[in-house]
Specification:
410 residues; Serine Threonine Protein Phosphatase 5, Tetratricopeptide repeat; 18 helices
Length: 410
Amino acid sequence: MAYLASIFSTLIAAVLLTAQVSGAAPADTLAWTDNMKAAQRALNESRYADAERFLRVAIKEAQKIGPEDWRVGVSLSSLAAVFFSQAKYVEAEDFHRKAVTIFEKSFGSEHLRVAESLTGLAMIYQMQGKYKETEPLLDRTLAIKEKTLGPEHPDVANSLSNLGTLYYFQGRFEEAERVFQRALTILERVYGREHVLVANTVNNLGILYSVEGKGDEAELLLKRALRIREAALGARHAEVASTLDNLGALYNSQGKLAEAERVLKRALAIQEKSQGTDHPDVAITLGHLGATYEAGGKLDQAERLIEQSLTIWESRFGPDDVRVAKALSSLARINAAEGKYAQAESLLLRALAILEKRREPGAPELIAELDNYAALLRKAGREPEASQIEARARAMRTDRPNARLTEGSQ
């Protein structure tokens, strides 16, 4: 399911407003501030190499003030965000950890800057499917914000939304609904029902209900999120497109293929114009539109769109990214439907190799792909091999008795 909105901070914006505290004279922070601002502009425009260059200069300027000055932590966190945006998770984790250490020494273990970097670390782990490592960080972040800001603060709602996102991907849908509902209550009380900052959580609940098979409730919520975003941002904004994509995915699940095609084409047109034809959001919508054509038996059109999606994922995040694996799996399914079992098997084996590298043993995505592989082998008349793969998947489920498979972002 696409576009489950999460409020993970990139840690660059807003910190510049406090760049002249902690006793440093304005002249001492000017170069740091200028490079931070330049990095923010570069990151907003996806100029990652430029953003990295500015941030490395910012780190050096901050270190002139003091090797463990809080500005060094801010610069490190921002550099981690740049690496995260490029799926360079090892580098991102290292810089976030260094930032946490500096913030804890500068401000104490319960400061909001510590919570921000912990959130950044949590996002890295979640993207890698390391849910056991993610949850304690998000729990600690929530506790810091509740203690510092109070239980009804909008930032607390953001942390609740992050927890809900984690629960969703773990298949813990009741817990996800509980925290999403609490977040929504806070945000509606602070901003009102029709504020754009409410739309993310409304969107999340809509996706959750869609996965749970509550189609009517899901549609109402997604249309509400769409209405809010169109009113606040205009009909051609990227967030409007993301909600249209979610609606399209819902209509796909309901077999409403004409409606799905209509909203997905509208989403795609907005994204290609506002974000460019090689943006990850475009890849997501191409995947969903491909699924629409696949369900309608238009396999050639479906294959073409999924291949475009795959090209974007590979160019943006490299050949071993989990999103590449998901696109490969979709292509394999289409090839299998066309009776091209050898091609389908090659694609699935590559997808499995990525997941075995990027996910923990027994991860839900890995189990799902093993099931797909076993089904393909059975279609090809290779019953003994299919039984072996099914046994492997079954053993993984035994090790993870509470795991429920959910559809990831395509």
